[in-house]
Amino acid sequence: MRFRDKRVLVTGSTRGIGRATAQAFAAEGGRVAVHGTRVDAAETVAREVGAVAGFGFDLATAAGCEGLVASAVKLLGGLDILVNNAGIWYSARTENFDEAAYDRMMDVNVKSVFFCTKAALPELRRNAGNIVNLASESGVMGQYGAVVYCATKAAILNMTRAMALEYAPQVRVNCVSPGTVDTDMVRLDIARADDPEARLAAMTDYAPLRRMAKPEEIAAGILYLASPDAAYITGTSLSIDGGTTAGH
Ligand SMILES: NC(=O)c1ccc[n+]([C@@H]2O[C@H](COP(=O)([O-])OP(=O)(O)OC[C@H]3O[C@@H](n4cnc5c(N)ncnc54)[C@H](O)[C@@H]3O)[C@@H](O)[C@H]2O)c1
Questions:
Q1: Which of 88, 139, 174, 219 has the fewest CB atoms within 10 Å around its CB?
Q2: Total domains present in the chain
Q3: Is 246 domain-assigned?
Q4: Would residue 193 count as lying in a domain?
Q5: Which of 11, 17, 184, 218 to mutate to test the pocket of ligand 1 (most atoms within 8 A of CB)?
Q6: Does a structural domain hold residue 227?
């Protein structure tokens, strides 16, 4: 019960890593707000994982981020922990990636982290709260067919450091950097591949630990960084990648 009565907002928590994170916080006593692009899905998941409320906002705009944070703060009666998890990924070579796709990925992955954080900052400062961002192994190494996604995750990694400096000593800011995690994001990519079986095998064999991560394994790292056990940790990234970034 490390999070008894802590007020927690997890963006993009209708499925995958976000959902597992919302569930884990709720299981340890947190008062959690679930969020997704659709309010009906968010409310359903909130009921399923023992969260207090579900909200639907598109976080590609500053107004969406401000709306979400204001709604969550109002309903939870404040905010102690913000997990900036919402994000999109798909693989497409540069010649197939147009301006609209570029803007959308930058807005959902990077702009949302900045504006959700900006909106939550007064509350987090007041409550000595903390933030956990979702970066990726793709933030520290290149990934074929994912030029823009790699740029967004590198941005989150270094935003985490700069935020940690600016918000200290009241607010800690860290990120987790997952490897391949078995979620819809990855399963959709596998389904779209020319040879889905080969793509699945490649993704499974890629990590030295020879499997994808489970969403719960990423949630465990997020909860650790958000917990009092990590009270002296800020501005860092926790790799949860089965060894992919350890070297070859
Ligand atoms: N799955 C992986 O292998 C992996 C690896 C490294 C990092 N990550 C990162 O972890 C995070 C979660 O990934 P996942 O695999 O659970 O993804 P997912 O696709 O399963 O879930 C993404 C969530 O983000 C929300 N979302 C998407 N677009 C949104 C928008 N415009 N506005 C608001 N919410 C939006 C969705 O509603 C959903 O709840 C992402 O930031 C992703 O980049 C994932």
A1: 88
A2: 1
A3: no
A4: no
A5: 17
A6: yes
Amino acid at 199: R
The answer to whether 16 and 88 have CB atoms below 8 angstroms apart is no
CATH of residue 157's domain is: 3.40.50.720
* Residue segments in the chain with a per-residue pLDDT below the cut of 50: none
The type of residue at 192 is R
**Cα of 94 to ligand 1 centre, how many Å?**
21
Residues constituting the chain: 248
59 lines ligand 1 (CB under 6 A): yes
Q: What angle do CA 139, 105, 166 make, to 5 degrees?
A: 55
> Which residues span the domain enclosing 168?
7-178+213-240
pTM for this entry: 0.98
Is residue 1 in a domain? no
**Pairing mode, if any, of strands 53-56 and 31-36?**
parallel
Task: Tell me the pLDDT tens digit for each residue of 179-210.
Answer: 999 999 999 989 999 999 999 999 899 999 99
Tokens at residue 202, please?
């490649």
